[in-house]
Write a structure and sequence with these properties.
Layout: H1 2-35, E1 88-94, E2 103-108, E3 116-117, E4 122-125, E5 131-133, E6 153-154, E7 159-163, E8 179-184, H2 221-229, H3 247-256, H4 259-266, E9 273-280, E10 294-298, E11 304-309
Parallel strand pairs: 7-9
Antiparallel strand pairs: 1-2, 2-7, 3-6, 4-5, 4-10, 8-9, 10-11
Length: 310
């Protein structure tokens, strides 16, 4: 009987010890769980490589990226378009009447970084396929000028009137009756006795503002009053009756009021040349149809610069 009691007590003691040990283990696990912070990690997702490229290369350029023409596929570049496209344009057409009245206006963009060469460019008809190249000209021209001339350049923002007919001044550069000249402050003198389409601007300085003779060769008061009445860009053919005996006045009027003297007086002004050109192809027949046509401006290689239809 005593043995049974002793064995039962022994089992009770073992049970108590087992429960105590298990409680401490659970407590330690709970303590570790509350003192160790949780860590969340997202693995990076890489784009799959394309064409053997690096794995970290983006599939597409960022939004707003500007793609240069230099990296465009060749199929998107038109070999028939001239590099001068956007630098020159056909801004106006005058097509009615004979060849002398027919002209187009070529305009240089004000955004151009420099002068653009016109010599060698070709104007043509998209209907009749007639074409004519632009030749050379003169920055300074006189009546009857002849010779090779110089290359024509159009500065930024300037324009050229290209007429199909003959040059009114009778000057030639290469082909008969063709020629060109750049307008200046004195070009309006050419309007006297000649016809231009369109008319030349009359911007010559007034004769009264020209350099006048100094003492003791100064002009008389009557001559001075007469010079105030002389129109711009006009060479007087005579003087008033009260000045016909005034030799000094007549010498000044007939020798100093003309294109050549105007050029000598003002050629050094920075604003002397206006930048506008008058070019004449020297044709005897019209280059374009009266009713409808396609005016094309192409470069030396035949690539299109600009066109205008009507």
């Amino acid at each position: 009987m005593d043995d049974i009691k002793w064995f039962a007590g022994f089992l009770i003691i073992l049970g108590v010890l087992w429960l105590g040990t298990r409680g401490k283990g659970v407590e330690r696990q709970t303590e570790r769980a509350t003192t160790t912070p949780a860590v969340s990690r997202t693995l990076p997702r890489e784009a799959p490589p394309r064409n053997g490229g690096a794995r970290n290369a983006p599939l597409y350029p960022p939004a707003g990226t500007i793609i240069s023409e230099s990296v465009l596929p060749d199929t998107l570049l038109d070999s028939n378009v001239s590099p001068l496209r956007g630098q020159l344009s056909v801004s106006s057409i005058q097509r009615s009447g004979p060849a002398e009245k027919e002209y187009v206006v070529i305009q240089a963009s004000a955004k151009n970084q420099g002068d653009v060469e016109l010599t060698g460019l070709v104007l043509g008809s998209g209907v009749s396929l007639n074409a004519h190249a632009i030749g050379r000209g003169w920055s300074f021209v006189t009546l009857g000028s002849m010779g090779e001339g110089e290359i024509i350049y159009l500065r930024p923002g300037a324009r050229a009137y290209v007429g199909s007919g003959r040059a009114p001044l009778g000057h030639t550069t290469g082909s008969p009756n063709s020629g060109a000249f750049q307008l200046n402050l004195c070009s309006g003198y050419f309007e006297q006795g000649l016809t231009f389409y369109p008319s030349l601007p009359l911007q010559c300085p007034r004769p009264i503002d020209d350099p006048l003779p100094l003492p003791p060769n100064e002009l008389s008061d009557a001559c001075y009053d007469y010079l105030k009445r002389v129109k711009r860009c006009t060479v007087p053919s005579s003087v008033p009756e009260n000045l016909k005996m005034d030799g000094s006045c007549q010498a000044h009027v007939f020798n100093r009021i003309n294109y050549n003297q105007c050029y000598a007086n003002y050629k050094d002004l920075p604003t002397f040349f206006t930048g506008e050109w008058r070019i004449y192809l020297g044709r005897t027949s019209e280059l374009w149809h009266d009713r409808h046509d396609l005016v094309e401006l192409v470069d030396r290689e035949g690539r299109l610069i600009d066109s205008r239809s009507y």
